[in-house]
TrEMBL record:
It holds the Pfam family Ank_2. Residues 187-230 are annotated as: Disordered. Residues 188-209 have a biased composition (Gly residues). It comes from Coccolithus braarudii. This is ANK_REP_REGION domain-containing protein. SUPFAM superfamilies: Ankyrin repeat (SSF48403). PANTHER family: ANKYRIN REPEAT CONTAINING, ANKYRIN REPEAT DOMAIN-CONTAINING PROTEIN 16. Keywords: ANK repeat, Repeat.
Length: 230
């Protein structure tokens, strides 16, 4: 009881207190796979985007735990929508957490990162970019190959192919929808009126020209879009 009373009277440490390595409590909890401590810190205002002296966020250090249940649970917690984590935050080496997980051959962690709710697009502000390059110009897939983890590289390649296929399908659907809209415009106001001469200025011909320009705008940058598989 004496020790408990003493502990209760001690001032609370700041939730963003730093070690000499600029690591915060969230970094230490994430690195150790202490998922409940991570949850508690996040719920009390710890910022998941803060970095240590190497530029690593809590997610970067969490993936170093490998494919253990504790590390996987921590990664999934940090990546949940509730915390609005930037999946593309880079360390001083220019690496995302996906780069680090792929280079280390953590198959399950790589899959968890790609399956996370935040991973909604092929690239983007808060989604894990599967083709991002580090300071040496290498993608996560290339790092996995260089490290001899062909299974991890194959996992990433398969997901990229799936995303590209979905993006291509969506682009085709958008073009078909645009063609349908153009045909409807032509039917509703296209041809010359009876008794009139040629098309009047600003009538159907002008409308079709404007739509024609819009048709040329179709398509989507695959590196900035594409829904994640599943």
């Amino acid at each position: 009881l004496l020790s408990l009373n003493t502990a209760m009277r001690m001032p609370r440490a700041p939730i963003e207190a730093e070690t000499n390595a600029e690591e915060r409590p969230l970094h230490l909890a994430a690195q150790g796979g202490h998922v409940e401590a991570v949850r508690c810190l996040l719920e009390h205002g710890a910022h998941p985007g803060k970095s240590n002296y190497l530029g690593q966020t809590a997610l970067h250090v969490a993936v170093t735990g490998g494919d253990t249940p504790a590390a996987l649970a921590t990664v999934r917690l940090l990546c949940s929508r509730e915390w609005r984590l930037d999946m593309n935050a880079v360390s001083r080496a220019g690496r995302t957490a996906l780069h680090d997980a792929a280079a280390a051959g953590h198959n399950k962690v790589v899959k968890a990162l790609m399956d996370a709710p935040n991973v909604a697009r092929h690239g983007g502000a808060r989604s894990a970019n599967l083709i991002a390059r580090d300071r040496d110009g290498r993608t996560p897939e290339q790092l996995a190959v260089a490290s001899g983890f062909d299974d991890v590289a194959s996992l990433i390649r398969t997901r990229i192919v799936q995303l590209e296929a979905k993006a291509a399908l969506r682009e085709q659907e958008e073009k078909e929808a645009l063609r349908t809209s153009i045909e409807q415009l032509r039917v509703c106001g296209g041809g010359p009126r009876s008794g009139g001469g040629g098309p009047r200025s600003g009538s159907g011909g002008g409308v079709r020209m404007g739509v024609g320009r819009k048709e040329g705008e179709g398509g989507e940058d695959i590196e900035g879009g594409g829904d994640a598989a599943g």
